[in-house]
Amino acid sequence: MEKTYKIGDRTFVLDQTKAEEAFSAKKIINGKDTMFFNILPLKYQWAYDLYKTMKNNHWEPEDIPMQKDVELWRSSDLSDVERWIIKMAIGYFSAAEGIVGDNIQHVTRDNVTAPELKLVLGRHAHEENIHADSLVYMISSLGINPHECEAMFEDIPTIERKTNFVVSNSRALRRDMDLDPTADKQAFAKNIFLFGQCMEGTQFYGLFGMVLSLYRQNKFPGIGQMFRYTLRDESNHIEVFRNLFMDLIEENEDVWTPEFREELIDLMREAVDLEKEFIRDCLPVNALGLSADEFCQYIDYIADRRLEGVGLSPLNQGVENPFPWLAEMMDIKKEQNFFEGRVTEYQKASALGSVDDDEL
Ligand code: FE
Ligand code: MN
To answer: What letter would DSSP give residue 253?
Structure first.
C-alpha cells in the first residue's frame, strides 16, 4: 500500500510497510546505522526544521565592515578594560568554537543514528567553522598577534579551567562507544547536556553580554554585529542539543535516575562557578556601564532557564534578568542595508527547499 508523506509543502509517496519499518528503526541512539542518508520518512521534525532555520541564517564574516572597530582599537579613547574584554572574547572563543565543533563531529554526530539528526549536526558543525573564521577575521582586522591569542588558553587560569571542564568529558567519549549499558548512555547524555546547556548555553553568555554591552554603547559595531549573528546561531545550537537530550531520555528511560539528575544539576553549578570566576577576570574593575555583579546575576538567570528547559530544578529562585535587551540582540531584521542584498541571495539559493520562515 502506498501512503503520502509531507515535509513542509512537499509531498512524497512511500510504500507504507517500508516507511513504517524505516520510521521505527530511527532512534536517537542504537537505531539502524546506515550510510544512506534516508531523511524520509522524517521522524525528528524538529531536527529538519532547525536545519532549515539555521541555513536561512547564513552569514559570512567578510560581509561585515570593520573600519570603525579598527579606528577605535587604535585610538586612545578606548579604556584598558574595554580592550581587555575584546581580547578575552577573541581569545576565549577562538578555541571554544573549535572545541564545540570537534565534539559535534567526533562524539555527538558519531553516536546518533537517525539521518535527520546527522543532517542538523552537520550544519551545526559548519556554523562553528563560520564562528571560528569570524574570529580569524577579527584578529586580522585589528592586527592582534595570533600566538598571543593561543597563549591565552594556557596562560589565563580561568580560561584553562573552563576548557578542561568540557574537554575532559569529550575526550573520554571518542569512537566505539557501546551505548547499551545505562552508564554509557548516561555518559553520552551528560556530554550533550554539558556542551549544549552548560557550555554553549551558559558559559558563552558572560562574554556575549559584555561584548554586546559595548556594542550597545556604539563601540565595536563590526565585532558586535558578528557576535549578534553568533548569538542567534548559538540559540539554535542550544535548541538542537536540548531536543536531542529530551528525545534521548524519552527513548531511554533508564537514563533518567534521581542520581543522574542530581549529577547534571551539580555539573551546571560547577559551570556557573567557573563562569563567574571568568567574568571577574574579564571585568576586574567596573567599566562604564559594565558591572561584574550584573553579569554574574545574568549567568544565574540563564543557567536556571537551561536547567528548566530540560526538566531539571533551577539552582536559584526568582533571579531576574538584568539584561532583557540581550534577547532582542538576536532579532536581526533588515536594519543593515549593506547586508540585505546578501541575505536575499542566500534565501534565493534555498528557494528550492520549502522556506516557511519569512522572518528575514
Ligand atoms: Fe559557535
Ligand atoms: Mn555553537
So the answer is: G
Q: Tell me the CA–centroid distance for residue 200 and ligand 2, in Å.
A: 6
Q: What would the pLDDT profile of 22-44 be if each residue is shown by its tens digit?
A: 999 999 999 998 778 889 999 99
Distance 128 CA to ligand 1 centre (A): 4
Cα 135 to the center of its chain, rounded Å: 15
Angle of CA points 211, 215, 220, to nearest 5°: 90
Q: What residue ranges define each of the domains in the chain, with the CATH number in brackets?
A: 2-359 (1.10.620.20)
Catalytically annotated residue among 48, 51, 92, 137 = 137
In sequence order, which residues have a C-beta less than 8 Å from that of residue 289 and are 6 or more positions away?
213, 217
Cell digits for 107?
562524539
Ligand nearest to the CA of 133: 1
The ligand that comes nearest to the alpha carbon of residue 98 is 1
Strands 10-15 and 2-7, by their bridges, are: antiparallel
Say which ligand is closest to the CA of 226. Answer: 1
The Cα angle at residue 273 between residues 322 and 185, in degrees rounded to 5: 110
Amino acid 345: pLDDT: 55
Distance between CA atoms of residues 208 and 210, nearest Å: 6
**5 is annotated as an active-site residue:** no
